[in-house]
Amino acid sequence: MTMVSFIHVAFILFPCFLSLRAEEIKSSEACEFPALFNFGDSNSDTGCMASAFYPEVLPYGETFFHEPVGRASDGRLIIDFIAHHLGFPFLSAFINSIGTSYRHGANFAAGSSTIRRQNRTVFEGGTPFTFEIQTQQFSQFKERTGKFFTQGRKNSFRKHFPRPEEFAKAIYTFDIGQNDIAAAINNVGKEDSHAVISDIVDYFANQLRNLHGLGGRIFWIHNTGPIGCLPVAMPIHNAKTNVTPVAGYLDQNGCVNYQNDMAKEFNKKLKNIVVKLRAEFPDSSLIYVDMFSAKYEIISKANKEGFVDPSEICCGYHEDGYHLYCGNKAMINGKEIFAGSCDDPSKYISWDGVHYTEAANRWIANKIINGSFSDPPLPIAHSCRAQ
C-alpha cells in the first residue's frame, strides 16, 4: 500500500473510529436514575414492619443512627449503601407516613416477607407483606402519585413524588427469597423441595412481569445468601442439636451444607428465570447479582478482613441452650438477662444471628456495586446498559 493509499484509507476510517469511540464513551457513562424502588424482606426493610407493628428497640440502630430506625441491624443496610452510591437519600418505607419524602423512590420491603404466600400469622413469624402485596403497593403508589400531576396539584404536593415519566427510568432492586428457603428447610421431608423451589421462582417471575407491565425496565436482582451460614443455623447456637454433626453436615466454615444447597438450587433456578425474562423483555435490563458468593466470601475471609469468627453473634444471648434475641429481656436460671450488644459491632459479621452488622453490610455492598458479582458484569450505576 502506497503512502497516498494509506492516508486515503485512514481518512475514510477516521470518522468510523470517532463514531465507535463516541459509542464507547456513551456506554461508559453512568445511568441517570431519577428514583430507586426496592422490594424485599428484613435484609432491606428500612421501616415497614416497625411502622406497621412494633417498633425496633435499642440496641438496634445504635452504630450509625444512634437510635432504632426500623432496620434489623446496628446501622445501615446494603440498600442504604446502594442508595448512597447512586446519589439518593435513605429510602423511606412505603407505609411510613411521618416525615417522609418519596421524591427519589420508595421502599416496599418488609421483614419476614416471602415471595409466596405463607400459612403463618405475624405472631408466628409471618407477614402480610408478601412480594405480591409489595408489587400491589407499588401499583397503588404509582397510580396515586400520578394524580398529583394529572390533576394539577400544587408544587407543594408534587415535590415529594417521582414524576410519571420517571418510573420507566428508575432502578428496581430486589432482595427476597431467604424466608421462602427457610420455610422449605423447615418442611424438609414433608414436601418436594425441588418442586417448591421451582414454584417460588415462578412466583417471583410473575411479579417481575407485573412490574414490567407497570413500567419498570431496569431490574437489579439479588439471589439469596448462604442461609446455612447464619449463626442461628449452626449447631453451636442451635439448642435442638445435642450431638456432634455427622461428616459432611458442615462445610469448612461451619455452615450447614444441606441448607446452603437449597439456597444454591433456588439461585440456579432464579438465574435461569432471569435469562428467560431477558428474552421476554428485550426492552429491559435485568442484572442478576450473586449475593450468595459475596456473603460467603466475607464469611470465609472473616479473620483476614478483620472480623471475629463468623459464628459469633454481636447482639443477643445464646448460651446454655437458651435463645434470647437482641433487645429482649428474660429470666434465665433465676437471673434477669438483657440481650444487649457486643462492645464493638464493627468486628462482627452477624448482628443478631440472622442479620448482618453495618460493617458487614458495607463490605458486601462495596463488593457488589462495582459489578464483580453481577451477570452481566456491570456496576449498578451502569445497569441500564444491559439492554
TrEMBL record:
InterPro entries in the record: GDSL, SGNH_hydro_sf, SGNH_plant_lipase-like
Record protein name field: GDSL esterase/lipase At5g14450-like
CDD domains named among the record's database cross-references: SGNH_plant_lipase_like
SUPFAM superfamilies: SGNH hydrolase
Alphabetic keyword roster: Glycoprotein, Hydrolase, Signal
Pfam family, one: Lipase_GDSL
MF-aspect GO terms: hydrolase activity
Protein family per UniProt: Belongs to the 'GDSL' lipolytic enzyme family.
Signal sequence, start to end: 1-22
PANTHER family xref list: GDSL-LIKE LIPASE_ACYLHYDROLASE, ZINC FINGER FYVE DOMAIN CONTAINING PROTEIN
Native source species: Flemingia macrophylla
